[in-house]
Amino acid sequence: MKRLFLTFVSCLAMATCLSLVSCGKDEPTVIDLSGGTETPDEPENPDEPDDSSGQREYGGTLPVLHTDGRWLCDESGEHVNLHGFWQTYTPWFNGGAWGENNWGGKDYEACVAYNKRIIDDIVASGIKVDFMRMHLDPYWFISDGRGDAAVSKYFSTSLMKDYFEKVYLPIIKHCNSKGLYVVLRPYPCGEEKTDNLKYGDGFFKLLEEMWTYFSLHTYIRNNSDVMFELMNEPVGIDASQDGGDRAKAVSRYMQHFIDLIRNKCQNIIWVPGLTWQQEYNSFVSYPLKGSNLGFAVHCYPGWYGSDAESSTGENGGNMGQGVGGGYEAFQAGWNKSLSAAAELHPIMITEMDWASATYNKTWGKSFTGMAGGAGFGANFKYIMDKCGNVSYMTFTAPNDLALFPTESAKSYTNYWNDPEACPWQIYHWFEEYAQGRVQPESADYIQIGCQTAELNMVKGKQFTLIVNAVRNKVVFPLQSGVEFSSSDPSVARVDGDKLIAEANGVTTITASALGCTTTLKVVVSPKAVVEATFPFEKGKFNTDIWEKGSMNVDDMTFTTGQYGFAGWQYSPAADISGHKYIVVKLGNKTDFTGQPSFRLFDNGYWDGAAEYSITSSDEVKIEISTIKRADGSGFDTGHVTIIGFWTLGSKTVQLEDIHFED
Asked: Quick one: three-class SS letters along 11-72?
């Protein structure tokens, strides 16, 4: 995979400034966006080209990029992935670095000077970035004092034209002169919100106004240095005009703007999906038409089943909250939402970060971890590199990114040098990408992602072996160059990156890469699934599924709240259909007056469960093929979402054993 990284020390000076458009009034002209669904008249634009064809030579200062199927490519056809950062231009989001943190007093000269300086500092910091996502803020395009509410109502054509020339265009040109492509992203829509996109409404017509203007702008039009992200984080859509077909509705909505832009220019367009830019199967069912298209995706901890310290509050209901899910859950969630779409067009992840909540620096709350095991960061890199056609950026605040050299060099652990937070990893990952590599050429040591004292498996099951190379506390999941061996293949053998349990016993897996070796003890036994499927650990065994409980890991005891439930949640759902029995045994510390009941769910918590009362410390053996819900209805043993224990509450339960038998 070729990494496109360019540094330009200078650019041609512009002989004249682009003309500014002014309404000549004290109050801004406010356009009426209330009616009709047709494309608006093209705005008056002194920069519109004179040719009648609507096209001009496609190019730019930087190497011309285009899309070819699932790939972003350069002029020679080589595959390219970009890596970048972002900026936004309100005083509030700039930390009051210029002006006051309010919506009055548009000091555009101070804004431009400050943000140019931040760009210069980021480039000077040594981080190898080659694109910037530029947020078009409501602050500049709506009436003073309006906040970001009712954007379409207060949106002003004259302010948009005026401040685009004064604020955005100088920074776009500055980025291009530094070797940075720019991705233009319209702002969230204000009072309409994007939780219910509607074809032809106020926000729809606002986008028409903006994209018509930008796609005709002399500097932007057919300039591959500047790309378009159609909108930010649409959540839902009104599908009433499409017979309730949500997938058809979102594809038709996005296609309208693709066509509007394509009638005027050929700039690369990054198309968002619904559910805060997580949902893309709509475009598989109803493919988008046109050239130079890609998908703009967001990816935070807890999304797509990935590990999260806490939810961002935006992970979609069908995406899964994967706390404790590790690599397998993250990969499954990514496959569900994006694998098919990634075969159609390239992907650009335009928001992503992670760090502990204690730093109060990131939207995503998680840790780096190891690919193939727990954590978000390393698994993210492994999945993106494996997918192959993914560009991505860090949502680290630009001013924080600029501080990396000085802050990361400090002797104490902080946000910039903590290997479990994104800045340290991202800085060094981007360095490797700039050399055309997804992994390093040397390592301090290597580690299998799941590595613990031993890996417990049950016969017939598989596990993905992913090896991480660690150099200077930077985790590089390896995509190639790893050799595996098993001391006893009859117990567990390696096939590619899959470890397959063949028979009960013990074996040692050896992995070799980059001149380093590591080993992993593997135990295959009927009871091994206690660790694999039913880990009794904080963060994995949830005492608060219903009502608040408590647990003691040392003696494997727990309590539930009143009429409460504790146990394990599975995202994606677990398949237990391949086993014959599930065996449960409670220990002698159990207070059976709490009336513990063992329960399994194949849907949500309130959708009914299979229930088995446990009245003593005798072993309870359940034949899996006979499992039914308490009401006698069928149970899907191939889609188990929750397993655990209900009690009256506040009575001790001791878990002695739980395992499958075949």
From this structure: CCCCCCCCCCCCCCCCCCCCCCCCCCCCCCCCCCCCCCCCCCCCCCCCECCCCCCEEECCEE
Contact present, 656 and 617 (Cβ < 8 Å)? yes
DSSP 568: E
- Of the candidates 467, 522, 459, which has an alpha carbon nearest to the alpha carbon of residue 496? 467
Question: Tokens standing for 646?
Answer: 């209900």
Q: What is the pLDDT of residues 71-114, one digit of tens each?
A: 999 999 999 999 999 999 887 777 666 555 544 567 889 889 99
pTM of this prediction?
0.77
- Three-state DSSP at 59 gives strand
Structure tokens at 357: 């909540």
* Torsion of Cα atoms, 638 then 327 then 422 then 418, to 10°: 120
| pLDDT for res 454 | 81
For 626, phi then psi, to 5°, come to -100, 0
DSSP run (H or E) holding 78: none
**Which of 477, 540, 535, 492 is closest to 658 using CA atoms?**
535
What residue type is assigned to position 409 of the chain? A
Q: What is the pLDDT of residue 578?
A: 82
Point out which residues pair with 564 in neighbouring strands: 647
CA angle 45, 51, 53 (to 5 degrees): 110
CA distance 255 to 270: 12
Comparing CA positions, the residue from 450, 465, 604 lying closest to residue 531 is 450
**Cβ-based neighbour number of residue 103 at 10 Å:** 18
Instruction: Give the pairing type, strands 516-524 and 557-559.
Output: unpaired
- Whether residue 396 contacts residue 422, with contact meaning beta carbons closer than 8 Å, is answered with yes
Using alpha carbons, select from 250, 256, 239 the residue that is nearest to residue 273.
250
The residue count for the chain:
662
Tokens, residue 117: 């300086």
DSSP state of 399: H
List Cα–Cα distances, 188 to 49, 235, 363, in angstroms. Answer: 30, 11, 17
Query: Residue 167 burial by CB count (10 A; 0-12/13-18/19+): exposed, middle or buried?
Result: buried
